[in-house]
Automatic annotation (TrEMBL):
GO cellular-component term (any): synapse
Native source organism of the sequence: Capra hircus (Goat)
Domain Ig-like: 38-147
GO BP, one annotated term: positive regulation of neuroblast proliferation
Protein's name according to its UniProt entry: Ig-like domain-containing protein
């Protein structure tokens, strides 16, 4: 069985007290290849995402995979979003998606959902503040970690 990668993307989101829109002008592209494994391209459009207080925001998370190595369709891909506690020591489950199956945890029901612009889009729409983490699992669990 070919080795797949576990991707962890941390997106930071917090409310901006000003009414102006602040954007970060940096694009980030990370290429990851496991030893004797398939290629995975991770694209983080912004390291930090800003919104006005009470506004909705999308935390970007896109992944690109080699279809011959990963198989076709999204049924083999599991996307999990967690929120880190203020001390960064614990993760709180927020949202999990695997193909057509989706589950929202706790008080996040109705407040978070996947953008779903494409099969490779794991971006999360939400109305909250804090530090968030996305994990994209393939069939196996070899891993790479990216922190913004």
């Amino acid at each position: 069985m070919k080795s797949l990668l576990l991707l962890v993307l941390i997106s930071i989101c917090w409310a901006d007290h000003h009414s102006n829109n602040y954007t970060v002008d940096h694009d980030r592209v990370i290429h990851i290849q496991a030893e004797n494994g398939p290629r995975l391209l991770v694209e983080a459009e912004q390291a930090k995402v800003f919104s006005r207080r009470g506004g909705n925001v999308t935390l970007p998370c896109k992944f690109y995979r080699d279809p011959t190595a990963f198989g076709s369709g999204t049924h083999k891909i599991r996307i999990k979003w967690t929120k880190l506690t203020s001390d960064y020591l614990k993760e709180v489950d927020v949202f999990v998606s695997m193909g057509y199956h989706k589950k929202t945890y706790g008080g996040y029901h109705g407040r978070v959902f996947l953008k779903g612009g494409s099969d490779n889009d794991a971006s999360l729409n939400l109305m909250d503040s804090g530090v968030w983490q996305a994990t994209v699992h393939g069939v196996t669990k070899s891993q790479a970690r990216l922190s913004n």
